[in-house]
Design goal:
The chain is α+β, with helices and mostly antiparallel strands. Helix content is 22%, strand content 34%. The chain contains three helices and nine strands; from the N terminus they run βαββαβαβββββ. The protein has a single domain, classed as Cytidine Deaminase, domain 2 (3-Layer(aba) Sandwich). The strands form two sheets. It has a six-stranded mixed beta sheet, with helices on both faces. The protein has a three-stranded mixed beta sheet with strand order 1-8-9. The radius of gyration is 14 Å and the shape is globular.
Length: 148
């Protein structure tokens, strides 16, 4: 798997549309693809008891999505979720519930809906390590001043 997650612009827009529709609840979903990058966007349903404070992908959605990925010969590249009011930084719960060190974790902040911020992480041993992200043909970087 590449060390740079590549998301086509059209799929990025689908992700943002899904998350903005779910806001102010946290939205979530999965991204499938191959070594070339993301090929498919799979929106999910957040069934967390307090969806304004966390997320949990519906297990029925997860099963359906993983089955569809297998049929398309895709692998799970990333899990994404939104922070409608906060920065795109992992919460203690995000780190605790980490799925796999090989899977990217995108956190998208919608605190300024006209200017969503995203960061791309991998989690291992309770720690987050940030990785590069390409949206379309451009590298995406979060300017630290955006986090203020």
């Amino acid at each position: 798997m590449s060390l740079i997650l590549k998301i086509p612009e059209i799929l990025w827009q689908e992700i943002l549309d899904h998350l903005q529709t779910d806001s102010p609840r946290e939205g979530c979903g999965l991204l499938g693809g191959d070594r070339e990058g993301v090929k498919s966007h799979y929106p999910g349903t957040n069934i967390y008891e307090n969806p304004h404070k966390g997320y949990r992908l519906d297990p029925h959605d997860q099963f359906r999505i993983m089955k569809e990925m297998r049929q398309k010969k895709e692998e799970l590249l990333a899990i994404y979720h939104s922070h409608p009011q906060g920065p795109p930084e992992p919460s203690p719960t995000d780190l605790e519930l980490a799925y796999s060190p090989e899977v990217y974790n995108l956190i998208i902040s919608l605190s300024r809906p006209e200017y969503p911020l995203v960061r791309n992480y991998r989690y291992q041993n309770g720690k987050a390590m940030e990785f590069p992200l390409m949206i379309g043909n451009k590298y995406y970087e979060t300017d630290p001043r955006d986090m203020e």
